[in-house]
């Protein structure tokens, strides 16, 4: 009985070495559909399927693949893009993993021109021109079912996103279906009203204390109502300042100075006290010290622009109010022309 | 070789080729500049069609380093209104004067308002927008002879004046919003960071507050009866001086106060100390001496040794309350005092017991406190003293009396 080594020669491929073991080596094989079902020599027989039927079909919206290659690709993920809260510089995406394993990695493409051009959501959730391996993230890193915020977007722009997945080498899927959403413009809406009750009023806005009884803390009969609504990422603020830094009489050449403090203890003064702060959603809108006092405590309304209401978050239908208080002393010069002009302004923090 | 391994090898060759090809640079990017961490543009006034300045603040998301002698810019793109009177920008860049005075202002989102470093004193470019189509653009340069940085996380602010710069549009219609852009560019100019912002324009953002402070005036006397000494016996060889009555004035009259006195009208033109039993009047006035005319602005004097009849009223300042009004300076003596006619301090030096003023049946000013408004009075006090001399032949009587009426009023 004799044994000898069978050696087969296989044409050298550019990128692959000849498949071989220590005992056997394939000398020939081919690609493409149809392959060779089996191969044999007088002593050995190899049966196998080298190459297999493969192909794909696609339409404008669907793609189907066949064959083992497609079978091994990651499941094509879905994605949903939304604007949940009047966002002007971000949108939320939620990937649908489509039963890919938990260690599958997903990449997201984004476009503002329906993918005439393409950018990518980077690993830091900003938008970039290139897609690198570090931008492939797990489902968990993409926020799982909660999703993730894509930031640094342009305002008032429609964005489209699509996702693809892979797990290990040679398994990257194609992009899944698109999802679209639009950012809005940055917004600030502001208005004031002057009334004893919460209602809309028109300018000119006037508050008349009437006669100030001496040594008595007198409340204004009307309040100043402020409306503020903003989608600013850090909310918005309302400010107040007074042209005369108090109630000023030209005739008497005297000013009942505005100041912060307890008017019941002070001999004389003038200031503002917050009385309400509400909102429909977001915010919350809050009073800022020293305008958040009670009793006879007031905050100064002088020439310095001072914050009276604040919201650290976007705010829907914020509504606040403040009242004015004044007190005179016996020697406060008599006059009928005491006056102050208050200015109330607002700013969004974008 | 195992069957399954053979299957994997062949498609793997193709896959290897594919893997080497992807992921690859794909697409032409419309790069979005990085956004400021925060941008706040606060209008001085939201009132429609009003002139306004704007306080501009930005928090860089990344540190911006400005090389030496290199000019970077803050660029403000203003909003525009889609219809109606739009924002108007004065195209003279030099008008857009800047300042960084935020003294007394608090923080914004927990960040202090830091002066924008090396911001120029004014804008260097103003481009008017197209009404109802596009917003105007103003650029403010910032540079320095040595390099500096705008540090990420710091809020940098500057303000431009409202004088001949920006005029607000009409009020923004209800439900509509307007927005602009704030950006920082380098010297090429390439946008380094930018953020869109929004503001609001309303019909009026001012509230006029008015009040009335009512007048008050208080006059009080320390008593209603004045006597001479403890026995009220008048000596013939001296000037008899009464114990005195004080009056006090407190008022918020902006012009101060004035007080008058008059004597009881006893008819026949004679006022003074009258005795019903003696049917005799020690007439008011001096006995000889300087000044015999009522209201001539000069006090009269009585003979220090008595021996002749005379009867005067002396008014002297006890308290000139701090602040508010002041007693005038007597033009005759250049000394602060009461009304010159009754101011007994000016005629002689030292303790003055012999001068005063002649009483009249008509109100005569006895004291006044005034000054530049607010000339209020927080308790001025004046003492009224009667001074009498009698002669040896003055009829005896224990009922010599006089009623002096004092009135006062605030100068509102």
Describe this structure in words.
The complex is a heterodimer of chains A (350) and B (412). Chain A is mainly beta and 350 residues long. Chain A is built from 1 helix and 27 strands. Helices cover 1% and strands 43% of the residues of chain A. In chain A, a hairpin with a 7-residue loop joins strand 7 and strand 8. Chain B is 5% helix and 35% strand. Residues 1-30 and 346-351 of chain B have low confidence and may be disordered. At the A-B interface, strand 7, strand 9, strand 14, strand 15 and strand 16 of A face helix 1, strand 1, strand 15 and strand 16 of B. Strand 15 of chain A pairs parallel with strand 16 of chain B, so a sheet runs across the interface.
- Approximately what portion of the residues of chain B adopt beta-strand conformation? 35-45%
Q: Find the count of extended strands of chain B (DSSP E, 2+ residues).
A: 30
In total, how many beta strands of chain A?
27
The largest interface is: A-B, 112 and 79 residues
Span of the ends, CA to CA of chain B? 119 Å
Q: Please state roughly what percent of the residues of chain A sit in beta strands, choosing from under 5%, 5-15%, 15-25%, 25-35%, 35-45% or over 45%.
A: 35-45%
Number of DSSP helices of chain B?
1
Largest sheet of chain A: 6 strands, antiparallel
* Helical segment count of chain A: 1
Biggest sheet record of chain B:
5 strands, mixed
- Poorly predicted regions of chain A: 1-15, 32-37
Radius of gyration of chain A: 37 Å
Overall residue-averaged pLDDT value of chain A: 87
Low-pLDDT segments, ≥5 res of chain B: 1-30, 346-351
Oligomeric state: heterodimer
